[in-house]
Design brief:
This protein has helices at residues 6-21, 27-46, 50-69, 73-110, 128-143, 153-161, 174-177, 189-222, 229-260, 278-284, 287-301, 308-326, 330-349, 352-356, 364-385, 389-399, 413-432, 449-466. It is mostly helical. The protein has 2 domains: 6-186, no CATH class; 190-276 and 402-479, no CATH class. Helix 8 runs antiparallel to helix 17 (413-432), helix 8 runs parallel beside helix 18 and helix 12 (308-326) runs antiparallel to helix 13 (330-349).
Length: 479
């Protein structure tokens, strides 16, 4: 079920009314209701893959109980290994089986050996990369004794399948989210209003910004050689805003919906395009995934508390694995590798005080660094968006020519002006709310009520007028 669908527009109010109107007297009853509604939400797409969520839930629940029961380090390691093999095994099979098979056969063909293999028509389950990481982190944290395992099966199951963040995050840690399923929840009007504002802003970003930019991006990436350099340059910028508005829009909606039910999810984006370096960008982009890789891969490898060569190796591993997490394609792996290179260059050559700086001084240097960082990130997105390396190379080769000074040929001046106005509006609002958990949290509260409601009504009008008639899936559903 899509957040931007009519189905969800009916589903959410109905679930909200039942949750607070009928189920509010018992925590367990509320949790069971969340489980049922979450399974309906996910099964609306394809009910057959509900059993995968069920497997991960059962395995990690009982692994947690076992880790609490046994003191033997050998048995504890075996239980942790069971959790890792189950979760990563499911992920590898459904997401990467054909990729590994194809590259295995290609490797043999390089040496003149042709082998016969059979690929499988595997459907990638929506959200599998997200919920497997979420439940796996629970087992790892229990093993490391960072958290105490729960014996409340319904609370744990609800933690794994909570529908707002089930299919595209944020990837929550048990330390933050699980206790919220184990205590009494109360509806707070101010929290509900704040959630609705965040949902509205997320819908605007997805349905107006992301989907509008995405329409033109799809045209340009079909055959890049048909377009001028100026068109491709504008297309690269459009995709930067498309993927940000699409993914951060999803996170805004997920966090806002969770607030309606009395839950607080972690912030997943913190105005990443206002970053003045690639290092800062990765502290602000997809925060829940970046911190997951930091805590469960980078730090166990030694982090930066090791030799220079080992530090470089650790960074390369994290970024390459991060790229591979996004999809079974060499474009994602190269995207991750290139980010690692830029990250390392930045880290090794920037002054330490520039890296750890959190408050910007708005100078010409800061503006230059921000524009330069955005340009680098936008260039990297070309590999991310391209279906294969050939398309990426074709796009880049045609990006640099004398036609870069011509007017883009894929869009009219009127439509371009409208999109640029929307992008300017996005940047302005997010800049004003950059120090808050979401853009509209406090910014609009400084204005009279009539101005606030006029602004919210304007957002709704834009969504109604400029959104596509089709229900466009979120980009990160494919990951």
């Amino acid at each position: 079920m899509l957040f931007n669908s009519i189905d969800f527009a009916i589903f959410l109010p109905l679930v909200f009314l039942i949750y607070w109107g009928i189920m509010h007297k018992s925590i367990t009853v509320q949790n069971i209701f969340i489980i049922l509604t979450s399974y309906v939400f996910y099964g609306w797409w394809d009910w057959r893959f509900l059993f995968l969520i069920g497997i991960s839930t059962l395995v990690d629940y009982f692994v947690g109980i076992g880790l609490k029961t046994y003191d033997s380090q050998k048995k504890r390691k075996a239980l942790l290994l069971l959790s890792i093999l189950t979760n990563i095994g499911i992920l590898l099979f459904f997401k990467y089986y054909n990729f590994f098979l194809e590259n295995f056969t290609n490797a043999f063909s390089l040496f003149g050996k042709e082998i016969s293999t059979t690929s499988l028509q595997i459907i990638l389950p929506v959200g599998i990369s997200f919920y497997t990481f979420q439940t796996l982190s629970y087992s790892i944290d229990v093993y490391k004794k960072k958290i105490t395992p729960t014996s409340d099966f319904f609370a744990f199951t609800a933690f794994v399948c909570f529908f707002p963040q089930l299919v595209a995050g944020p990837i929550e840690r048990a330390k933050n989210l699980l206790p919220q399923f184990q205590k009494k929840r109360y509806f707070e009007y101010s929290n509900g209003v704040d959630g609705l504002k965040q949902i509205l802003w997320g819908l605007f970003k997805k349905m107006v910004i992301a989907d509008t930019c995405g329409h033109y991006v799809d045209i340009l990436y079909t055959n890049p050689s048909d377009f001028s350099s100026s068109s491709l340059l504008l297309g690269a910028i459009f995709f930067s805003f498309q993927i940000y508005a699409d993914f951060s829009g999803y996170s805004d909606i997920a966090i806002g919906v969770a607030r309606l039910f009395g839950f607080q999810l972690k912030q997943n984006f913190a105005t990443p395009y206002f970053s003045s370096s690639v290092i800062e960008f990765w502290k602000r982009w997809h925060i829940s995934l970046s911190t997951w890789f930091r805590d469960y891969i980078y730090i166990p490898l030694g982090g930066n508390k090791t030799s220079r060569s080992r530090f470089i190796f650790n960074i390369l591993v994290v970024f390459v694995v991060s790229g591979f997490w996004h999809g079974a394609s060499w474009t994602f792996i190269l995207w991750g590798f290139l980010h690692a290179v830029i990250y390392l260059i930045t880290f090794l050559f920037m002054k330490k005080k520039e890296i750890v700086k959190t408050k910007h001084i708005y100078t010409i240097r800061y503006v230059f660094n921000t524009v330069f960082t955005f340009s680098i990130v936008s260039f990297m997105w070309i590999f991310f968006r391209s279906e294969n390396l050939d398309i990426a190379l074709e796009y880049i080769l045609n990006l640099f020519s004398s036609s870069i000074f011509s007017f883009p040929t894929f869009i009219s001046k009127g439509k371009l002006l409208v999109i640029l106005l929307f992008l300017g509006m996005l940047l302005f609002i997010e800049w004003k709310g950059k120090n808050e958990s979401h853009a509209l949290k406090k910014y609009m509260n400084t204005y009279p009520k009539i101005m606030r409601w006029s602004f919210y009504s304007l957002l709704i009008l834009f969504i109604g007028v400029f959104s596509n008639s089709d229900e466009t899936p979120f980009i990160y559903f494919q990951f």
